[in-house]
Specification:
- The complex is a heterotrimer of chains A (286), B (409) and C (308).
- With 286 residues, chain A is an all-alpha fold.
- Chain A has a two-stranded antiparallel ribbon with strand order 1-2.
- Chain C has 308 residues and is mainly alpha-helical.
- Chain C is built from 14 helices and 4 strands.
- Chain C has a two-stranded antiparallel ribbon with strand order 1-4.
- In chain C, a hairpin with a 1-residue loop joins strand 2 and strand 3.
- Classes of the chains: A mainly alpha (286), B alpha/beta (409), C mainly alpha (308).
Chain lengths: 286, 409, 308
């Protein structure tokens, strides 16, 4: 295995990590603010892909599909949060269980609306090519994924650190009661974050749809991986999600390339170990 | 979900009086990641029933479809339900090899015929056959089309092959079949890569493919089949690709692009078979369901036809499980996939088509589309190919380690 | 106490009626009882100790695979030794929980949920990939049910055996939760800090509950293997664990009986309604959502006046 092998595998791992970041960042934010694990996150991912396909069928434009799908699912998330999660008040356990119920409903609805076919999201030809860099064939689409994840990551970081809304979010994550004490409307923050989480997941679905395909069952397939990232990186920490997705992306990639027999095990076992040592994940805090 | 397709209209006028009912219990995944395949399976069978207006030589057909979700335990439960509650005369279907293996014992328990119209697990009609007196297979064994493919590859100049196949029983058996004939003819399989079933990101695997191989053998199923050729192309690999039967089947072909032009595979069916019978089948199917039939559809259509043929001989009376099996295995039929008859292990002997993906107009359709053009036909291929049955059965069933990879590394 | 009599009479009714229902219904009833056992184990953790476990299917898997491997590779467990296998299944489930508990009990609330999910996925990964032992995705086919004077191959007989084991499990768990130990579990659920201040070793209490739950999961696994005649990795997959949790939430956490009620509802919807209509998943999801929103005590909560 020459240098090229290691380079390409690293590139692949990083690009996979980029996709995971889109999926995990929403999950970790939702946890940080609302202290719930959104078990329907995978469903938002899947629905994002499906809506994008419908938009593309109607308009023929992938560029248009991207924001429309993400916003549509964000609205869906908003609706779910307002109408179903909010009434439960601060009861994380029941809220988590509620998201499970929705996962089932969404899954069935998706099957009824879009059928069971394995669908592919076809990105524009410009992104479907490969560039050759130093003898390595790098698919442009993967470069795009990395670039997008970086852009989103930076945007989120900027929003969190430099804007008032971000400050409110951070305050809520740190100590919701105190935040309420100083006049922050934490329920609005929750609503916003849940919608944002759905937005990011749906975006991930559109991006990932070219890569993974869109089909029934994808929601429950990506969910455990997203959890792995969030758990390893630390629940509630955006930086943790970034690091976690890189680690999982690389570990998964190298694990499969070098030790294919223990592919799934190599993903979940480290997760357990990290949890055993630090239940809140690498960068999380209780 | 249960759909009872009982078509009585028009029967009284046209056909012999209905003497009895024929209840058929159908198992296919209707939800989950194989939902669309299940639909194809059901549609194929249903189309034949509709053509016969629900009347098989005087027997009124009751067609009950149950969702096995692509999960063997669910398949078992639904099979039990169909047999015990609905009292079906026969069970048909089951998608995955694992489901086939799971339902076979049920057929013993409930003493009901089980017709494997898709599930390809080799051993069910080989080393395990004696255990299951009630099963008969109308589709294929995993290795059946890949024996001739290995020979074809060797005869067409490929000397070394790097193989990548889904890591489960079906993948093992497909590659095993290919490897056996390929190496018996002088070829060498120099690498075996096993991505887990359901892999969509081949990033970790593609760079490990050996540079010096003449060709790549790939066995992909479902979503994997869609992604692998694309990612192969993106990685700049231009080697010839030889695929297992499901890698380019019409189930995925419409969603594929130019990256698969020229890829070769083998199966007992291709929608591009240029016979009048298949042409008519493809046109009718496409008109009814909006897509070109896949082998999943054809296999179930032909299975329905076979059941009908048996009923013709009994004039619409259900002959009982043992007699039914005896009668169906004595059939010689002309079907969309060509001539089919059975060996003495209750598995079909049929044509195997070596096919290549081309873009053209076919069967009178007016658009250029991807088709699996037949480039060579091996007639009368049984599950043992040119090997003697007794010798073949002495070797273990094809698995991950058999045939051993003598030329790897 | 009254609850117990109601439960017993319902079960007795089921037992009496069973021979007259169809063979498919008998299998469904047996399935409900086996799932009821695992639901009760989840209830012990969730309803009584306040630990939401999303990985109980792992212990069912351990018990089921053990049974299948013993039966097919060693021909063991098909006669009187079936009862030995029952004990071994419980022991295996408990031992696995004992090992996993070391990782899991450190956490609580949603962290606990995540860890148990991860542990469940580890077991699934092993079942799926350890081909030589577990048969991989083909799973393991059982060769037939045990025979010891009575033939369990007869579905009705098997149903009675399962019924007996369910009743035994119920009583065992009932005694447990009524005991001082059980009461301290509830105390931990309510106010762990206070319990610790009062001197209770809360870690140990939770750990023991976890191990016991694992043991009953293993028992359910042994029966599950014989019920279906096949053990496959899908038995250990995430949705299986989610199902168990669902049943407890639907039926009513903290009631033990709730597990059985939940199992009845879920099995009825999945296996029975599903054969009649296409939209059963919506019903399941809706029932679930509505229960969470309006019936915090589950269905049993309706009987207790809504108190969780």
């Amino acid at each position: 295995m020459d240098a090229n092998f290691w380079l390409i595998q690293t590139f692949n791992g990083v690009s996979y990590g980029a996709l995971l970041f889109l999926l995990a960042s929403g999950l970790t934010l939702i946890f940080g603010v609302m202290r719930i694990v959104n078990l329907s996150h995978g469903a938002y991912f899947l629905l994002g892909g499906y809506v994008a396909i419908s938009v593309m069928r109607a308009s023929g434009s992938w560029l248009l599909a991207l924001p429309i799908a993400a916003l549509a699912i964000a609205l869906l998330g908003l609706f779910v949060e307002r109408v179903f999660l909010r009434p439960l008040g601060f009861d994380p356990l029941r809220q988590v269980l509620l998201t499970v119920g929705f996962a089932f409903l969404f899954q069935q609805a998706a099957l009824d609306i879009w059928g069971g076919d394995n669908l592919i999201i076809q990105p524009p030809p410009a992104l479907s090519a490969s560039v050759v860099v130093g003898g390595l064939h790098l698919p442009v689409y993967r470069i795009f994924m990395i670039a997008l994840a970086c852009a989103i990551g930076l945007a989120l970081w900027f929003a969190m650190e430099r804007t008032r809304i971000g400050a409110m979010v951070r305050a809520t994550v740190d100590d919701a009661e105190m935040a309420r004490g100083i006049g922050i409307d934490t329920s609005k923050v929750s609503m916003f974050i849940f919608a944002l989480g759905a937005f990011l997941a749906a975006l991930g679905g559109v991006i990932g749809g070219a890569f993974l395909g869109i089909y029934p069952g994808l929601d429950f397939e990506v969910l455990p991986v997203a959890f792995a990232v969030v758990i390893i990186g630390g629940m509630g920490s955006l930086a943790g999600a970034a690091i976690g997705s890189m680690l999982v992306g690389l570990a998964d990639n190298f694990g499969k390339a070098l030790f294919p027999e223990i592919a799934y095990f190599s993903l979940y076992a480290p997760m357990v170990l990290i949890l055993a040592m630090k239940p809140t994940g690498l960068l999380g805090r209780e | 979900m249960k759909r009872i397709a009982v078509l009585i209209a028009g029967l009284a006028a046209a056909s012999p009086g209905i003497s009895q009912e024929l209840k058929i219990g159908f198992l296919a995944p209707m939800t989950g990641i194989f939902a669309q395949i299940g639909k194809d399976m059901e549609n194929g069978f249903q189309m034949y029933i509709d053509e016969q207006k629900g009347n098989f030589a005087g027997a009124k057909v009751t067609f009950i479809v149950e969702d096995e979700e692509g999960k063997p335990p669910v398949g078992v439960r639904k099979a039990e339900k169909l047999a015990r509650q609905d009292n079906v005369h026969l069970l048909v279907g089951g998608l995955l090899a694992s489901t086939g293996y799971a339902i076979a014992p049920v057929s013993n328990r409930v003493k009901t015929v089980y017709v494997l119209s898709i599930a390809a697990a080799d051993d069910l009609t080989q080393r395990d056959l004696k255990q299951y007196p009630y099963i008969v297979r109308t589709s294929w064994t995993s290795s059946q089309p890949h024996h001739p493919l290995g020979k074809w590859a060797c005869e067409n100049g490929f000397k070394t092959v790097s193989a990548i196949a889904a890591d489960y029983a079906f993948g093992h058996e497909v590659l095993g079949g290919f490897q056996k004939t390929f190496e018996d003819c002088g070829g060498k399989v120099i690498q075996k890569i096993w991505p887990p079933l359901g892999t969509k990101d081949f990033g970790p695997y593609i760079p490990t493919i050996k540079r010096d191989a003449d060709a790549i053998f790939s066995l992909m199923v479902g979503p994997m089949a869609l992604q692998f050729p694309k990612q192969l192309q993106e990685a700049g690999i231009k080697k010839p690709v030889i695929g297992g039967g499901t890698s380019y089947d019409e189930f995925v072909l419409p969603s594929m692009g130019d990256e698969v032009l020229g890829h070769v595979s083998a199966l007992q069916y291709s929608a591009a078979i240029d016979t009048p019978k298949n042409r008519e089948f493809v046109r009718k199917y496409r008109e009814k369901y909006g897509k070109v039939p896949s082998y999943y559809s054809e296999s179930n259509y032909t299975t329905a036809q076979m059941i009908h043929e048996v009923m013709k001989q009994t004039k619409g009376k259900w002959p009982g499980p043992e007699k039914f099996i005896q009668m169906i295995t004595q059939l010689k039929l002309d079907t969309p996939r060509g001539p089919v008859r059975f060996d003495d292990m209750r598995n079909p002997i049929q044509n195997i088509y070596i096919k290549k993906v081309e873009k053209k107009k076919l069967h009178g359709f007016d658009k250029d589309e991807l088709w699996n053009t037949v480039i060579q036909t091996y007639p009368e291929v049984s599950q043992f190919f040119t090997y003697k049955k007794e010798e073949f059965l002495k070797q273990p069933v094809y698995n991950r380690d058999f045939p051993p990879c003598k030329h790897c590394n | 106490m009254k609850r117990i009599w109601i439960l017993l009479s319902v079960l007795a009714l089921a037992a009496a009626v069973a021979p007259f229902t169809g063979p498919f219904v008998i299998l469904l009833l047996a399935q409900i009882l086996v799932l009821g056992i695992i639901a009760m184990s989840v209830d012990l953790l969730l309803g009584y100790t306040g630990l939401p476990s999303l990985g109980q299917a792992a212990y069912l898997g351990v018990g089921a695979y053990l049974t299948a491997i013993l039966a097919t590779k060693f021909g063991f467990g098909l006669g009187w030794d079936f009862w030995l296998v029952v004990l071994m299944g419980m022991a295996a489930g408990a031992a696995t929980a004992g090992f996993f508990g070391l990782f899991a009990i450190r956490a609580s609330g949603v962290y606990f949920l995540m860890i148990t999910l991860a542990l469940g996925m580890c077991v699934w990964g092993l079942a799926y990939r350890w081909n030589s032992l577990t048969g991989g995705d083909n799973g393991i086919n059982m060769r037939g049910r045990p025979k010891f004077g009575i033939e369990l191959a007869n579905d009705l007989t098997f149903f009675y055996v399962v019924l007996g084991l369910f009743i035994a499990s119920f009583f065992a768990l009932h005694l447990l939760v009524s005991s001082p130990f059980g009461k301290s579990l509830v105390g931990i659920r309510e106010r762990e800090l206070r319990m610790r201040i009062l001197g209770y070793n809360t870690w140990l209490h939770k750990y023991i509950a976890f191990v016991i739950a694992g043991g009953f999961g293993g028992l359910a696994g042994v029966l599950w293997a014989h019920l279906n005649g096949i053990v496959s990795p899908v038995d250990v997959l995430l949705p299986a664990s989610v199902d168990a949790l669902l049943m407890v939430v639907l039926g009513g956490p903290g009631t033990l009986v709730g597990g059985l009620i939940g199992a009845t509802v879920v099995v009825f919807l999945r296996e029975y309604l599903a054969t009649m209509v296409q939209w059963w998943q919506y019903v399941l999801g809706a029932v679930y959502v509505l229960t969470i929103l309006y019936l915090p005590g589950g269905i049993m909560g309706l009987f207790k006046g809504g108190k969780a």
